[in-house]
Amino acid sequence: MIKKLIILLLPILSLAHPHIFIDTKLDFTTKNNKVDKLQVSWIFDDMNSQILMMDFDTNRDKKLDKKETQKFLKTYFNKLSKNRPFIHVKVAGKNVSLTKHISPFSIKYKNNLLVMNFTVDFKKIKQTKTIDIGFWDETNYTAFAMEPERIKFKGKKLKVELGFYEEDLFVADVLKIML
Amino acid sequence: MSDFFNTVLKEFIELQQKLNATISSNFREINDENMLLPVLTILSVAFIYGVVHAMGPGHGKLLISSYFLQKNRSYKEAFKMGYLISLIHTISALSISFILYYILEVIFSQTFQEVSFYMTKISALLIIGVAIYLFFEQHKEHIGANLNQKSDLSIAFSAGVIPCPGVMTIILFSILMGNITVGIFAAVFMSIGMGLTISLSAILATATRSKTPSRVSKLFPFIGNSMILLLGIYLLIL
User: Fold this and answer.
1) Residue B22 has what pLDDT?
2) Among A106, A132, A159, B88, which is most exposed with the fewest C-beta within 10 angstroms?
3) Which DSSP symbol is given to B144?
4) Which chain B residues contact residue A16 at CB under 8 A?
């Protein structure tokens, strides 16, 4: 119990200087002017990729097998913050729960970088007006960056706009899709 | 105004990401034939990274400025104190990284946060202790306590004892890249950069004090020390 409490409190310490930098890559597939699915890649920075591989690639074969991946997800993402995995989606300004629409995470180690991939299936999500997609860690231990050149569309390109999610002393990128 | 602030904050995070990436990519470029340029790049970027990194919360800026508000001190003393904190901060990070990696062989990315947590609690208790000591001294000598070398050292130690996570990451990365010497030098340069930022906050406090009329500044020992005490309590219950 005490350990759990401590682990929940840990990220608060980091406040505004992030220690893990993640570049996000978004690949949308569209159908009838709606989002059909979204493939997300989180690319970890070089330093943390090496440290995480040292920690979790226990057999040192330069990839994370099923067991290692599970341990990674369990230790790293589930324990260190209460609201993993940092994915925030809003439709017409309202939060959408993604539990039923999100694929399991897969992890690859490529060109010295750790990449985490997952897919959000939008088929059964009712889409009206706008969709906001953002990734952020309220504790700012991990900082996510979105860049226009890493946002791609398969099918018709929808109108998008990069903006901010903001809260006291905290800011994150948000992609707004205009339907 | 809020947009301006957000943009600045975002730029600040992006800058840290760029500096971090420049350090890691230059570590990869070091080889027997190509040593000088990547090493010089790492050291200079580590210095800038230190300056920027210490601008974030933590690193003892609030503590040192509250302390320097209390008594007339010279800019030189303020400067020296900033560097003392940075030095202890870096030594703490270096020793903890080495212990975790070579002796305990733990899951670093997890343990390193647990260690930071406990060190913050230790730091909080030390800060509260120093605040109580300073209140006691002020009471004894009335307003304008004699802030001696002993209290300078305790302040520097209580703030610096929290290991700098930025330094820990660089050190561990350098070990994994097989270039620990460059990693240690990078940590030293980063600490010189951090010292500059921390010193600046002490210097600003000193300047504020000297520019404030004495009828107001006679309240500073009480205000400054109360801030130290509150900071200690905040870190303890955080």
Assistant:
1) 96
2) A159
3) S
4) 9, 12-13, 56-57
pLDDT above 70 for B144: no
Separate counts of helices (H) and strands (E) for chain B: 10, 0
Kindly report, residue by residue over A28-55, the tens digit of the pLDDT: 999 999 999 999 999 999 999 999 999 8
ipTM exceeds 0.90, yes or no: no
Contact A134, A120 (CB under 8 A): no
Give the 3-state secondary structure of residue B102: helix
As a whole number, mean pLDDT of residues A76-87 equals 60
A51–B56 CB contact, under 8 Å: no
CB proximity B108 to A under 8 Å: yes
Looking at the complex, report in whole angstroms how far the Cα of residue A125 sits from the nearest Cα belonging to chain B: 31
Q: CB of A79 within 8 Å of any CB in chain B?
A: yes
Give the closest residue to A28 by CA, choosing from A153, A168, A166: A153
**Could you tell me if A51 and B108 are in contact, meaning their C-beta atoms sit under 8 angstroms apart?**
yes
Residues B111, B100: contact at Cβ < 8 Å? yes
User: In whole angstroms, what is the distance from residue A112 CA to residue A110 CA?
Assistant: 5
How far apart CA A82 and CA A19 sit, in angstroms, is 18
A8 at interface of B, judged by CB pairs closer than 8 A = no
- Record: contact B56-A15, CB cut-off 8 A: yes
A93 to chain B nearest CA, in Å?
20
Q: Cβ distance B155 to B14 under 8 Å?
A: no
> Kind of pairing, strands A170-178 and A130-135?
antiparallel
The whole-number average pLDDT for the span A153-178 is 87
